[in-house]
Amino acid sequence: xxxxxxxYLAGRTISPDGISGMETVADLVDQTxxxxxxxxxxxxxxxxxxxxxxxxxxxxxxxxxxxxxxxLGRSCIIPWIENGFVDWIVSTGANLYHDTHxxxxxxxxxxxxxxxxxxLREKEVVRIYDILFSxxxxxxxxxxxxxxxxxxxFQKEMGTAELHYRIGKYVCERERALGLGTVSLLSxxxxxxxxVYTSSPGDSSIGMNVAALNMKGIGPKIDxxxxxxxxxxxxxxxxxxxxxxxxxxMGGGSPKNFVLQTEPQIxxxxxxxxxxxxxxxxxxxxRPDTGGLSGATPSEAVSWGKVDxxxxxxxxxxxxxxxxxxxxxxxxxxxxxxKRSHRRLYERREELLSYLQGDLPEKFQSQLI
Length: 369
Fold this sequence. Notes:
Blueprint: H1 25-32, H2 36-52, E1 57-63, H3 72-82, E2 88-91, H4 93-103, E3 109-110, H5 117-122, E4 125-128, E5 131-134, H6 135-148, E6 157-158, H7 160-178, H8 185-192, E7 196-197, H9 205-215, E8 221-222, H10 224-240, E9 244-250, H11 253-260, H12 262-269, E10 279-284, H13 298-303, E11 315-319, H14 322-336, H15 349-358, H16 362-368
Parallel strand pairs: 1-2, 1-9, 2-7, 6-8, 9-10, 10-11
Antiparallel strand pairs: 3-5, 4-5
Helix pairs in contact: 1-14, 2-14, 3-8, 3-14, 7-8, 10-12, 10-15
C-alpha cells in the first residue's frame, strides 16, 4: 500500500527547516515541536487556541505546584486574566499566598537548590527549590492577611471565591499605593470579576491565618460547600445554554479534581442529565500507572462522567514541567488569538446558583423548601 492510501501515514512528513534564531515562540512550536511531549505541547497549544478559547467556551483553569513564587502568576496567569482567556480558577491556597507577596511589594530572589538549608535557617532565608526569600516576607504577608481578615467585611460566612475577591480588592489597593501596576493574580481577578476558588482552604498560610483568627472568635467562616455548588452551577449553566466547557489544568492534585468533579456532582449527586466536559488540557509530570488523580488520563475521566466521551479526541495531556509549558502556551495564544470578552462570573454567582437549584429533581426541591 502506498503512503497516500495508508491512513496511518496521513500525517504531515517530518521535515523541519533549520532553526534560524528569528522564529517567534509560536512559530517554533508549530514548526519544530513535532514529536514526543513536544508534539503533545504543540497539540495543547492548538487545542487551546483553536477550540478552548472560542467565544462559546467557558474556560476553567486549575493551578497546583509552586507557580506564583516562580513568577508565573505575573508572567502568564495575569495575561490570561486580562485577555479573557480564563473565566474561573481553582488554585492551591499556597499559590495565592505567595502571589500576594508581589502585590504588597515584597521580593523573592533567584537562587540555587544546592545550598546548605541549615545555614539558610540561621540566616532567616526560606527556600522553594531554587527560589530564596527572607523569612520576613512570610511575617509581613501574614501581618497583611491578619489585618485585613480582621476587618468588618470579613466577619461572616463565605466561600473562597468571596474570600479571594475581597482579598484581591485590598491587594489591588496596595499595588496602586505602591505604584506597582497589576502584579498579583488576585488583584487581576478582582478587577475582571473572575471567581478564584481554593479546593483545600485550610491547606495554606491564608487558611492558617483564618484559623488563628477563628480561635479568637473573629475572621471569616469558610464554607467549602458554597465552592462546590458555585463551580457546579458555572458548568451546569454553561452546558444548559448551548455553550461548551473547557478545562486547562496546570499540574494535578486537588485543584484538578475540583474542576473535574463538577460533572459528577451534576450527574451522580444531583441526578441531572449531562454528558461531561468538552475540552481537557493538562500539563503534568505525574504517571497514570500509580493510580493518583494527578496522572489520571482523560479516558479514565470518561468512566466517571467527567469528560464527554464524544469529545475525547479534544483532549491533550503533555507530560512535562508546568513552568516550561505555561509560558509557551501563553506566548502561543498571545501571538495567535485575540482578546475574549470577560464573563465576570464572580458577579453572577447567585444567579447561576438559582438557575441550578431551579432545575434540581423533585427529591432535592422538596428538601430546599
